[in-house]
From TrEMBL:
Residues 17-230 form the Radical SAM core domain. InterPro entries: Aldolase_TIM, NrdG2, Organic_radical-activating, rSAM, rSAM_sf. Pfam families: Radical_SAM. Keywords: 4Fe-4S, Iron, Iron-sulfur, Metal-binding, S-adenosyl-L-methionine. This is Anaerobic ribonucleoside-triphosphate reductase activating protein. The keyword Metal-binding applies.
Length: 235
């Protein structure tokens, strides 16, 4: 028997994680990246905490929510790291739910198996290829992310690309460089997310001493409007 999905947590109700849908969020355990601003350090290790729900407990929960929720969002951690996600998505679909996915795009082969069964994807792009190792603490992952993006660009369902920006990682000029690089791809919906301080993975990210100014970010969005008519800011 194949291993069950390792679950790190469950949020029973959200309308934000799959925009405009009533959903729950299943947080999967394990992520190969080490972003300094990560707010889910407890999900990075492969081993789930003893108090985390099992996949069978999640399925029991979903059976009790069949007429109440529209969708299940898999988030992480990095959900596509686990081979068990493929079966988990099929089980959720069999219960009548739509399935949405948050991913950093690190496992494009698994993504290609999953895409026909998903309704929506939020793809996190962390940096231009040369800055991936600086921001995520892992070399040689950018090519996989670009492969995932290219799959989404020919997928015929809605998705968004999110850029999570922490002032420790980015100057405004570097945000501009990232937008310039991405302008080579016809991404329909791009969102700038400003990373929070607080309980981040790396202590130097916890205190934000030089926050982005909303006025400057809005100016950047305005200046990029010719490339990015659907660029928005999520704070
Ligand atoms: S923020 Fe980075 S390290 Fe944290 S779960 Fe997401 S991809 Fe992994």
């Amino acid at each position: 028997m194949s291993a069950a999905l390792r679950v790190g947590g469950l949020t029973p109700l959200t309308s934000l994680d799959y925009p405009d849908h009533l959903a729950c969020v299943v947080f999967t355990q394990g992520c190969p990246l080490r972003c300094g601003y990560c707010h889910n350090p407890h999900l990075l290790d492969q081993q789930a905490a003893a108090e985390a729900p099992s996949w069978n407990q999640v399925l029991d929960f979903l059976q009790r929510r069949q007429q109440l929720l529209e969708a299940v969002v898999f988030s992480g951690g990095e959900p596509t790291q686990q081979a068990a996600l493929v079966d988990a998505v099929a089980q959720v679909r069999a219960l009548g739910f739509q399935v949405a996915l948050h991913t950093a795009g690190l496992y494009p082969q698994r993504l290609s198996i999953l895409l026909p069964h998903l309704s929506w994807v939020g793809l996190d792009i962390k940096a231009t290829p040369e800055r991936y190792p600086i921001i995520c603490g892992r070399p040689r992952v950018a090519a996989q992310v670009v492969n995932s993006l290219e799959q989404l660009l020919i997928w015929e369902r809605p998705f968004e690309v999110r850029l999570t920006l922490h002032p420790k990682d980015y100057t405004l000029a570097q945000v501009g460089d990232l937008l310039d690089w991405l302008s080579h791809y016809p991404i329909p919906h791009l969102v700038l997310q400003i990373a929070r301080g607080g309980s981040c993975l790396r202590p130097e990210y916890q205190q934000i001493t030089t926050p982005f100014s909303t006025a400057e970010l809005n100016q950047l969005i305005q200046d990029s409007a010719h490339h990015w008519p659907r660029l928005s800011l999520r704070t």
